[in-house]
Amino acid sequence: MQGWRRWVIGAIVVAALLGIVLHMGELENYLTLLRQSQPSWLLAAVLLQLSTYVSLALGWREVLRAGDGRQFALKPLIRIAFSKLFADQALPTAGMGGNVLLVDQLTAAGATRGTAMAVLLISIRAYYAAYLLLALACLFLLWLHGQATALMAGVVTTFILVALAIPALALWLRRRGSKPLPPAIERIHPIAQLLQTMAEAPASLVADRALLLRVTAFNALVFAADIATLFACLRGLGQDVGISTAFIAFTLASIVVTLGPIPLGLGTFEATSTSTLHLLGVPIEAALSATLLLRFLTLWFPLVPGFIQMHRITRPHRVKRAGGDKAGGA
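Above: the chain's sequence. Below: its structure in C-alpha cell form.
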C-alpha cells in the first residue's frame, strides 16, 4: 500500500475515534432512546439498515460482472460498503477518502483498475439518478399534503439542478483525467491520482444505459430502506403515521444536508427532519426522538463493522512490514 494511502486510512481512523470521544454524551442519549422503543420495530429498523449495504454491494457487483466478465462474491463487497461509509463519515472530504478506498479495495478484491473506477463513476450517476426521482416524488407528496410552499419547492428545485450537475461533472472529470493536471492539483497526490485513474474506466461500460438503470434501482432500494427505517423508528415510538410522512421528512432533510456546507449534516438533518415531521402532525418530542434514532442507526451503528474492515485493510501491510524487518535483521 502506498504511503499516501496509509496516511488517508490513518487519518480516517483517528478522526473516527475523535468523533466518538466528542460525542459520548450523544451516545448515552441514543441508548436511552433505544431502551424506550418497541423491540420489534427496532429490529426491523436494524434489518432495514443492513439491507442498504447489501443493495450497495449488489449494485457494485453488477458493474464488476459487466466489466470483468466474472461473478464476485457478495460478502467482501458488503465489507467494503461498511468501510466506505466509515471513511465518508469519519473524514468527510466530499467522499474523497471513501472513493479512494473503494477503488483500492475493489482492485484488491480482484477487479481491474478500470472496472473499479467504472464502479465509482456509475455509482455516482446512479446515486443521483435515484436521488432525483426521490426529490420529484417528495415534491408531489408535498403538493398532496398541501405543504408545497415556495420555500420547499425552491429547495427541491435547487437540488434537482445539483443532482443533474454532479453526474455531468463526474463524466467531464473522466474525460479530463487523461490530460495534464494543473500544478496545484498535481501536488495533492490522492486527488490527482483519482482524477487520472478516472480515464481508465472503459467508455463502453460507463455509457451502458441498461447497466446504469440496474445500479440506479439498487441505489433506490437504499433510499427506500432509509425511509422505511425512519418509519420504523416512528412506529417504534408509538406514532401512528403513514409511510409518506417518513418519505417527505427524510427526503427534505437529506436534500438540506446535500445543499448545506456542514459535514454529515450534523444538526441540519435533525432540525429539518424534526420540523418537517412536526409540520406533518407528529408531536415534536416524538419527531426529534425518531430522527435521533435514525441518525444512530445510519451514522453510529456502522462504525464498529467499518472499523473492523479498516483494521483488515491495514493488517496485510503491517504483517508484510514485520516480515521484512525480521528478514533484514537476519
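Residues 7-25, 316-330 have pLDDT under 50 and may be disordered.
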